[in-house]
């Protein structure tokens, strides 16, 4: 019993030390970057080319305390979230269908592969023609950029599910809906979340 307690204590100490070392490495990295930044800014001597770290920090404080800037940031955040929701609305069902059915994958794959090769900026003129000036083009571009990571990661998640899970659920009398919710969605969820995370980051980069 004492041996188990001692082993657990050592394991907890090791985890704490590991977390502390990770934090220490991050702090040291930040200090080194700021030091190089400060040295380079002093060497260049031009706030236009490379401002001092303290000047940037003061500008950041000014930005987050300016009501007009905060308002614009919230508007941008709203657009990104709307685009992300549309990407999930279209990408998730399509990815599930393409991952589960090889026939659907062959049917939709050429369209998906062709559309995702087009640079996002090439869609800007068309979106302005389609949606006019306003939130429409921006939301469309965010959704368009984010839908493909969701589709591809969902397909990968569904295809990685072992057929044994389906067979086991069927042998226990599970309905198609139960298999869909408790087997397919549950097993593919990590990949779906990965696609969603990539879609959010891609959406931020697509904000115009």
Automatic annotation (TrEMBL):
CDD domains given in the database record: TM_PBP2
- Bilayer topology: Multi-pass membrane protein
- Tell whether Nucleotide-binding is among the UniProt keywords: no
Which InterPro entries is this protein grouped with?
Answer: MetI-like, MetI-like_sf
Transmembrane portions of the chain: 20-40, 83-102, 139-158, 179-200
Q: Which UniProt keywords apply?
A: Cell membrane, Membrane, Transmembrane, Transmembrane helix, Transport
Tell where it localizes. Answer: Cell membrane
Pfam families named in the record:
BPD_transp_1
Coiled coil located at which positions?
A: none
Start and end of every ABC transmembrane type-1 domain?
73-208
Task: Kindly indicate whether the keyword Protein transport belongs to this entry.
Answer: no
Matching PANTHER family, A to Z?
Answer: ABC TRANSPORTER PERMEASE PROTEIN MJ0413-RELATED (PTHR30151:SF0), ALKANE SULFONATE ABC TRANSPORTER-RELATED, MEMBRANE SUBUNIT (PTHR30151)
The UniProt family comment states:
Belongs to the binding-protein-dependent transport system permease family.
Q: What is this protein called?
A: ABC transporter permease
Q: Which organism is it from?
A: Paeniclostridium hominis
**Organism placement in taxonomy:** Bacteria, Bacillati, Bacillota, Clostridia, Peptostreptococcales
């Amino acid at each position: 019993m004492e041996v188990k307690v001692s082993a657990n204590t050592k394991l907890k100490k090791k985890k704490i030390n590991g977390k502390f070392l990770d934090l220490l490495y991050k702090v040291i990295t930040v200090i080194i970057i700021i030091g190089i930044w400060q040295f380079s800014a002093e060497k260049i001597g031009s706030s236009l080319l490379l401002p001092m770290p303290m000047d940037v920090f003061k500008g950041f404080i000014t930005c987050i305390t300016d009501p007009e800037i905060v308002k614009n940031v919230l508007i941008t955040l709203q657009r990104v979230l709307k685009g992300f929701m549309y990407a999930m609305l279209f990408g998730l069902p399509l990815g599930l269908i393409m991952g589960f059915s090889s026939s659907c994958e062959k049917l939709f794959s050429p369209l998906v592969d062709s559309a995702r090769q087009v640079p996002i900026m090439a869609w800007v003129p068309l979106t302005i023609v389609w949606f006019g000036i306003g939130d429409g083009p921006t939301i469309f571009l965010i959704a368009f950029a984010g839908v493909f990571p969701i589709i591809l990661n969902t397909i990968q998640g569904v295809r990685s599910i072992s057929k044994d899970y389906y067979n086991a659920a069927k042998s226990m009398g599970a309905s198609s809906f139960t298999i869909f919710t408790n087997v397919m969605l549950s097993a593919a969820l990590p990949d779906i979340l990965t696609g969603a995370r990539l879609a959010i980051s891609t959406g931020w980069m697509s904000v115009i």
